[in-house]
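wait is this the right file?? whatever heres the structure
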């Protein structure tokens, strides 16, 4: 399918005008997006929001919408959203005056593996694998999760939990009481039990960050196997360059919103609610 390209400039401008995009992305992909932006053919204004918005999706989508709405009308050719569906964190996001462009992805790990098809294939061939990237490791530290990598009770943040299990348990006790706190922790234990491999998705530009040592330490603590995976920036490069084929990207026109599609397309656009007079 042919890519959806940026609008064609009027005659005489084509040689000098490049598309100008506003990028609003999760800091989990900070290094990868910045690396691709350095060689992008388009002009980019980058903004990164703190990781963890998906922990409370209702608040997360409100925060992202706030930043979308802050974009000046008519200034950009499109707003590029660096978010996956991620627990419906982008469900209901509206394009006001400028088109939104979102990768079709259930989970941001798709961004680092290059396509949702590769992610699905690897998930099927290597079930029980928990994926790590530079962003996942660094955002844990930014959020003050000092348990990384030695605390055997440390739990993955993608489960919607932060800090160690002990810290989370204490928060739940304070909020719900001991009985319910024990039940909630047992459910998280069940969620983490099916993992047996920790996989680092790496790139040439992050080889010097000692990420392998961190992930190997996590795997040793949890009794997991370690695996290294070569990352693929192709999806992010096409997103930033405006090469938006329909199979990989959803373009949401003004007046429409993002909704889950519950099929291989992951998300779709539908007309948004009519603003109140």
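ok assuming it is, sequence goes like this
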């Amino acid at each position: 399918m042919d890519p959806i390209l940026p609008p064609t400039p009027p005659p005489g401008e084509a040689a000098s005008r490049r598309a100008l995009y506003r990028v609003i992305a999760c800091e989990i992909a900070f290094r990868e997006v910045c690396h691709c932006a350095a060689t992008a053919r388009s002009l980019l204004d980058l903004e990164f929001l703190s990781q963890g918005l998906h922990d409370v999706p209702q608040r997360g989508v409100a925060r992202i919408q706030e930043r979308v709405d802050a974009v000046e009308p008519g200034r950009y050719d499109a707003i590029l959203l660096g978010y996956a569906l991620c627990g419906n964190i982008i469900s209901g996001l509206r394009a006001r005056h400028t088109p939104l462009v979102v990768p079709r992805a259930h989970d941001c790990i798709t961004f680092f593996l290059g396509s949702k098809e590769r992610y699905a294939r690897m998930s099927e061939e290597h079930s029980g694998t928990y994926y790590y990237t530079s962003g996942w490791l660094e955002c844990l530290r930014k959020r003050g999760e000092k348990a990384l990598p030695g605390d055997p009770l440390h739990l993955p943040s993608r489960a919607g939990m932060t800090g160690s299990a002990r810290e989370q348990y204490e928060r739940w006790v304070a909020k719900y009481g001991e009985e319910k706190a024990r039940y909630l922790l047992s459910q998280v234990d069940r969620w983490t039990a099916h993992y047996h491999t920790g996989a680092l998705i790496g790139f040439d530009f992050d080889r010097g960050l000692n990420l392998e040592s961190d992930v190997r330490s996590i795997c040793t603590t949890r009794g997991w196997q370690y695996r290294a995976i070569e990352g693929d920036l192709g999806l992010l490069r096409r997103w930033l360059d405006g090469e938006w084929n329909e199979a990989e990207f959803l373009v949401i026109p003004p007046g429409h919103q993002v909704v889950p599609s519950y099929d291989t397309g992951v998300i779709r656009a539908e007309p948004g609610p009519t603003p109140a007079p």
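Residues 11-15, 146-163 have pLDDT under 50 and may be disordered. so i think its the right one actually
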